[in-house]
């Protein structure tokens, strides 16, 4: 296969390219961050593969990223000596979008520049952002372990197709060259590039090098010297003392590892010593990723062992109900050749998982208490996932229960803002239970006939309509010593809250309607267990309830729908 080939981009790539150029232009310098981020990932991957196969280094273990520019050619080149790409890898990685959720993503686009820019950000911009500033991009790459004669040249003008040709390359790794559009001259400038690199890529743990420059008075311009200098701090961000890291640096680091375009909502950074030694830097994103509900989706955090990258998406390091958290955990105890299988059994990993879950819960508690608006944002995006924790992490159930938020009859709004503690603080004299009703939708819950008597008595009821709620309630039986009770179940026992007069009245009513109840009982024989007079309705003549110990109708429907 020695000839140059011309191939078409996947339809989604074409759409993305078009959108990106038009909607992200106001933030165009991000292309540099994306290309440096890829170069850094490529070096991480090489280091990881080399744990089992040290020959891949071929004597060159000083991993680094270089940024060069050429004023005359109006080009910028970002090169790395990382893992490189074979022909097939280049075709797949630079011609398609393999990410899950791609289809849904494109169906959400509106044509409104600002909204779409936001969406693209959530999707992750990546390599294709080069075309925001470049009219042509060339990628020269040689996979680690491949021969000098076995390299590839990928080229495209970002218009729908790319070419790929076999070429020679003296060293391993990838060089990406951008040929800038005429109006992008500002980037072929050493000062400008350094400024952008420091702003967006200072957290990169590898050295980013540029050629030294000197003022030449005769030519009256900067001239490049044949000597490299490192322009970033080049130490892993999470290993630096907190006091030396700015918010901007944390934010840029998050964008790199979270593949997100937006700032994170909050983060927590700690070094843990003792039985197990590790550093954690964990972020809560602002937006749920497209694949939050996708079993195959990205999840978990990156695992490093003594600063060596080991794997992405190490799902063992956090419980699944915290799968929206992004970040890095760097362990001092795990072996470098740790596999996913070993992770599953490791005691060290269990300690890390428990410690990390507690840190994230503390972070959320802090938000809930001190930044309620941000917590509301968090709840809207991730509340349903957090609810899974009530069953999954029973050791922390009480802490999780305090973080839950519900819609309620207190403010009659679909917004989930009421905590169980709020509810308890408003409980009526003599009330010893937390009441809820669950249904398929907020509207159905808030119109439930079961609510009548509660509204009349001024008793607050939580209005549940999320899919996980019934499941959650099968684990979360009580809060603060008060049991959670569905108002759709029998034996509510509101009597203890009724006054003497009311009780007398109810007894009379029961007596009066005894014959009717008997007739109804016969007519519905076999269809219902029992017919009885109730004090729970105000305006409706009758309602169906389930026995205290039976499944609620909503859960029953869900189980039937699931074929059980
Ligand atoms: P992401 O980094 O989120 O995976 P990108 O669009 O930035 O998405 O990159 C797409 C893919 O192209 C990467 O996942 C990687 O496989 C490949 N790639 C990009 N740049 C490089 C590089 N410098 N070296 C090796 N592979 C690269
Ligand atoms: Mg990338």
UniProtKB/TrEMBL annotation:
ATP binds at residues 34, 38, 80, 85, 93, 100-101, 122-127, 174, 340. Residues 1-340 are annotated as: A. InterPro entries: HATPase_C_sf, HATPase_dom, Heat_shock_protein_90_CS, HSP90_C, Hsp90_fam, Hsp90_N, Ribosomal_Su5_D2-typ_SF. GO terms for cellular component: cytoplasm. Residues 27-184 form the Histidine kinase/HSP90-like ATPase domain. One of its GO terms (molecular function) is ATP hydrolysis activity. Keywords: ATP-binding, Chaperone, Cytoplasm, Nucleotide-binding, Stress response. It is found in: Cytoplasm. Belongs to the heat shock protein 90 family. Molecular chaperone. Has ATPase activity. HAMAP family: HSP90. Homodimer. This is Chaperone protein HtpG. It comes from Pollutimonas harenae. The gene is htpG.
